[in-house]
């Protein structure tokens, strides 16, 4: 857990890459772009347009090797030699959230969800439902990249994202902080609609194929199901997250 003691840049920014996403971020008055990083090899009208847009927005442009840009973007095929670090005002380390005077009362924990579209839709849904946090581990979950931002319709920038190393690490931290840990599983008799919840609860959403992993599963307080009278085996994880999130809204009302 050593990486929890220092604030990683990945706990402050969402990095977008590619010329169109970077230009869109620079043009959006609702976003604050910390910096643009442009590859030394970037030439022509596209690079010039980005430099003009950054200057107009008062955003510094740093230059780096093409290799460095690929490493920072994490996606060498689509970065087009440019990326931007966009300030995510509600994103922070899980450890910082738990140390707050008023820690979050209801959070989602993503475990092994690797499809960017699902992560993006979950962030959009959780933000719409007013949840206090979505724990997005750095390992084992889709990176918070332009595909996630697109799936969230831009909401990812202002979502209450909580970062940590892994889902197991998050489960341990939440358990130690007194949270009940609930996981969605199809076979449980207890449903999301009738479970008695403690003051603080975290809900684990498992991966698209394997579900909740055994490392997190062994720490779960109780498994919950979503009743489905129709002849369907399971819901997509983002649909299940929506059902759960708005059940929490209903209870709060």
TrEMBL record:
Family annotation (SMART domains): SpoU_sub_bind (SM00967)
Name this polypeptide is given: RNA methyltransferase
Keyword field contains Chaperone: no
Stored SUPFAM superfamilies: alpha/beta knot, L30e-like
Keyword vocabulary terms for this entry: Methyltransferase, Transferase
GO terms, molecular function: RNA binding; RNA methyltransferase activity
One annotated GO biological process: methylation
Domain of life, per lineage: Bacteria
Coiled coil: none
Domain RNA 2-O ribose methyltransferase substrate binding stretches: 15-92
One GO term describing the cellular component: cytosol
Matching Pfam families: SpoU_methylase, SpoU_sub_bind
Family assignment from sequence similarity: Belongs to the class IV-like SAM-binding methyltransferase superfamily. RNA methyltransferase TrmH family.
Xref: InterPro entries: Alpha/beta_knot_MTases, Ribosomal_eL30-like_sf, rRNA_MeTrfase_TrmH, SpoU_MeTrfase, SpoU_subst-bd, tRNA_m1G_MTases_N
């Amino acid at each position: 857990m050593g990486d929890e003691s220092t604030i990683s840049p990945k706990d402050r920014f969402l990095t977008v890459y590619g010329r169109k996403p970077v230009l869109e971020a620079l043009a959006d008055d609702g976003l604050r772009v910390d910096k643009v990083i442009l590859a030394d090899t970037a030439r022509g009208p596209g690079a010039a347009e980005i430099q003009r847009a950054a200057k107009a927005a008062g955003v510094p442009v740093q230059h780096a090797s093409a290799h460095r840009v690929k490493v920072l973007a994490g996606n060498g095929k689509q970065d087009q030699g440019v990326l931007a670090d966009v300030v995510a005002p509600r994103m922070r380390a899980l450890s910082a959230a738990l140390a707050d005077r008023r820690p979050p009362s209801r959070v989602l924990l993503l475990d092994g969800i690797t499809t960017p579209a699902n992560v993006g839709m979950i962030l959009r849904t959780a933000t719409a439902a007013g949840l206090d946090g979505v724990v997005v581990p750095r390992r084992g979950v889709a990176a918070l990249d332009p595909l996630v931002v697109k799936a969230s319709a831009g909401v990812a920038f202002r979502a209450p994202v909580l970062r940590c190393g892994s889902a197991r690490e998050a489960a341990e931290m939440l358990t130690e902080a007194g949270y009940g840990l609930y996981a969605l599983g199809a076979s449980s008799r207890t449903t999301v609609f009738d479970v008695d919840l403690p003051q603080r609860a975290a809900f684990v959403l498992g991966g698209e194929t394997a579900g909740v992993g055994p490392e997190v599963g062994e720490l779960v307080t109780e498994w919950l199901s979503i009743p489905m009278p129709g002849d369907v085996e399971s819901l997509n994880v983002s649909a299940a997250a929506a059902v759960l999130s708005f059940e929490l809204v209903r209870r709060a009302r």
